[in-house]
Amino acid sequence: MLPELRILLNMHIGERIKARTKEFGIGTTELARRINTTKQNVYTIFERKSIDTDLLQKLSKALEFDFFSYFGTTGNGGTNESQGPYGDSQKEIAKLKAEIEKLQTELKELREAYAISKELLKLKTKKTPKKSSRK
């Protein structure tokens, strides 16, 4: 038997969800809030060996992980690469971080230019003291 098939047959989806929850750094209360259920139901999900696809989709979104990839198809021709609405998130995050960095640099430059302009205006409008005329 292929190792991938053996893993798939022995997979416990609830344990995978529990592990991802821990890895993602949120508690059961927060996960319950994100998927609109109770904390007790989250513990029940952790015990499941199989799961409804609608619930798995909610969990994938809440935990930013494509759990469907464990089943060999993710809508990308049967490969296990993470694609779709959740799989490209790492690329999107990297792109957004680069954009934020660019905007922060631009903001810093604008603040510096503003400070210089403000100082120049202050110097320009500063009145020079008049010499007193004593006769």
Major pleated sheet: none
Could you give the distance between the termini?
Answer: 113 Å
Q: In percent terms, what proportion of residues is strand?
A: under 5%
Q: Which structural class best describes the helix and strand composition?
A: mainly alpha
Number of alpha- plus pi-helical segments: 7
Count of distinct strands? 0
Number of structural domains? 2
Low-confidence stretches: 1-8, 74-84
Q: What do the pLDDT scores average to?
A: 80
CATH topology label of the largest domain: 434 Repressor (Amino-terminal Domain)
Order of helices and strands: HHHHHHH
CATH superfamily of the largest domain: lambda repressor-like DNA-binding domains
Please compute the radius of gyration using only Cα atoms.
Answer: 29 Å
What is the 3D shape?
rod-shaped
> Do you know the CATH architecture of the largest domain?
Orthogonal Bundle
Instruction: Specify the CATH class of the largest domain.
Output: Mainly Alpha
